């Protein structure tokens, strides 16, 4: 990541952090003291605490579970809390996610991402005769069943939008629901407890659905949880030609 | 200062039910309120991203619920009360164990969660410390993401109004003194808001971030408890703060305090002090590192405080003797977490320290989440009593979802009975004046150093092991800090201003911290998570301290009274002769 240390820089002592600010006249270059270990989140906190308390960024859990600290570091969409700054790095550049409107500095409005997510009906739709609620019986489904083999590796999405930002189609506003929403759709379509498969297949097969994907695999490369949304999209495309879940 | 100089005239929003907080308790409350009455207008007020802030999301271990016919809710109740050292409000513990299996049913069938299965396709339950039966439901070691992810999805179906990045400030009342709603602040725009609500549910989570080494998400700054404190509500068990024994030490990095899971010790990890001694032999020779959470946390803290810690102020955990392949296979998440900070659990020792984890204390509630104030409900970590003096692993997410659901049911009923009321303007103005004050000052400290000071005081003097002299000292230091935070000055505009937000967090943290130190000084015994080096024994009589504000502001006086625990379901002598009691 970033520019490597050269002999005449203060490697290991100072880190130059460039933050894209939403106000033109706001300061964007900062020198912060190196700590070890140091994540991008640590660097942003140092900027905010030592230089400019108005630098805006979001974070919550700092252990890669909330998915709210996603930014672009030297162009790559990552979780700030999970991205180490190697000892020989002397400069990093931090930008807001691509394809989402900036609220301020590094904070984006994730609305479009969640609208796309919502468009696939992201919640379980139980069958009409299903016994639902506090007296409902959990379904008996073997862990090695075909549906669980398809679903389990695709769960644990934290909604961080790194895939959305990394996708050349979704982030360019080309009317594409994007990798995370399609991954969610695949999970529900594969889930035998769900009764809205036909509707979801219509959504994912529509113009803004799976056919927009060009298989660049930016999404699967960016996912901080190691999920494979491109694989889910491939599975959904295959699903259109077969009768299986 | 006249209204309008610093803030716009607040927008007034009317709703039937205002839910403050969007973790497990908050969103379960929304689900239940709107399932009971789909016509209700429900508003979620969340300081962070809805469904993605707070700690339910961070749950790794799992969810305790009685599902197996061989298990029983009586046994779960016993484990919970025994773990809580008989300090629990047993009616709350009873509600927890009774409802936990039913909420698991609901999470599976309505919410769409899918927990790990046994080979026969039924829900798998794993062993967890302090329990007589393997009853912990889980989804791998990311149980919280499955629960919060699916609850978040339910919001697309239910469509509550979501006020994201909106900080609740204070409860406000009408001219008759009846609860009318709350004041709030839109963190993005910097504008104030008045929410008029028939029912307010407080579910913001705890306050353990006030320690130097702490595990929770950043939002957990005692906002709900402090808001209730300012409104005069009674609290209990405020001294009871659980420390997890193995929090990661990563220097000044924000990663410090993140939990290394309990399973490592179960699998045979050793703990060493800086002299290379396996010190657990001096604290629990029989169980060694496999001893209970409180004993191991206490031992580590005492080693560190006695100067036998590492330069970084920790001890070492080492599981590499199992072989790196085995460690990587069994604990992939934990290995990744240590490699991320330049250490490696698979091949050598890693620095750890006890880390502040969960606040058992909080607002007094009944089993329907009602409080002393009509129309005000509290659920989850903001409430006290369910766990008594210590919480079992796996009972935390059960509490937030069970009581969130109950709060939703109660709110739906209450919303029929309570009219919308108009808050008195003087209360609204006082609340906003207090909130905007840091922006009006030009001379004064930034909040960041004061937050650091709070964390040091709490760590040193209201930490894992306490004594009378340090607690007295902490009381004075916290009182001084409470005065100082009233002089904080933050630069910049009101929009998206995190220095200002931290200043507001700090007022809440110091308010709760003072109550904690005060209760810790009162409890002259060692019970559960509360350890006193000057009072190592446990009293026969189980009592608790009920505290409430006795004056205004974070530096105000504290009023308190002692009460005896009511043994409504189980008495200590019911457990005599039982192993482990």
TrEMBL record, chain A:
A Pfam family reported for this protein in Swiss-Prot or TrEMBL: Fer2_3
Record-annotated 4Fe-4S ferredoxin-type domain positions: 147-179
Domain 2Fe-2S ferredoxin-type: 15-98
Pathway linked to the protein: Carbohydrate metabolism; tricarboxylic acid cycle
Signal peptide: none
Catalytic activity: a menaquinone + succinate = a menaquinol + fumarate
Cofactor note: Binds 1 [4Fe-4S] cluster. Binds 1 [2Fe-2S] cluster.
Documented EC number(s): 1.3.5.1
Keywords from the UniProt entry: 2Fe-2S, 3Fe-4S, 4Fe-4S, Iron, Iron-sulfur, Metal-binding, Oxidoreductase, Tricarboxylic acid cycle
InterPro entries: 2Fe-2S_ferredoxin-like_sf, 2Fe-2S_ferredoxin-type, 2Fe2S_fd_BS, 4Fe4S_Fe-S-bd, 4Fe4S_Fe_S_CS, Beta-grasp_dom_sf, Helical_ferredxn, SDH/FRD_Iron-Sulfur
Cofactor: [4Fe-4S] cluster; [2Fe-2S] cluster; [3Fe-4S] cluster
Stated family: Belongs to the succinate dehydrogenase/fumarate reductase iron-sulfur protein family.
Annotated PANTHER family: SUCCINATE DEHYDROGENASE [UBIQUINONE] IRON-SULFUR SUBUNIT, MITOCHONDRIAL (PTHR11921:SF29), SUCCINATE DEHYDROGENASE IRON-SULFUR PROTEIN (PTHR11921)
Name of the protein in question: Fumarate reductase iron-sulfur subunit
Organism of this sequence: Prauserella alba
TrEMBL record, chain B:
Keyword presence, Oxidoreductase: yes
Basic and acidic residues bias: start-end ranges: 560-581
InterPro entries recorded: FAD-dep_OxRdtase_2_FAD-bd (IPR003953), FAD/NAD-bd_sf (IPR036188), Fum_R/Succ_DH_flav-like_C_sf (IPR037099), Fum_Rdtase/Succ_DH_flav-like_C (IPR015939), SdhA/FrdA/AprA (IPR030664), Succ_DH/fumarate_Rdtase_cat_sf (IPR027477)
Region Disordered: start-end pairs: 551-581
Pfam family, one: Succ_DH_flav_C
Residues in FAD-dependent oxidoreductase 2 FAD-binding domain copies: 16-397
Keywords (A to Z) from UniProt: Flavoprotein, Oxidoreductase
Domain Fumarate reductase/succinate dehydrogenase flavoprotein-like C-terminal, first and last residues per copy: 452-539
Protein name from the UniProt record: FAD-binding protein
Organism from which the protein derives: Prauserella alba
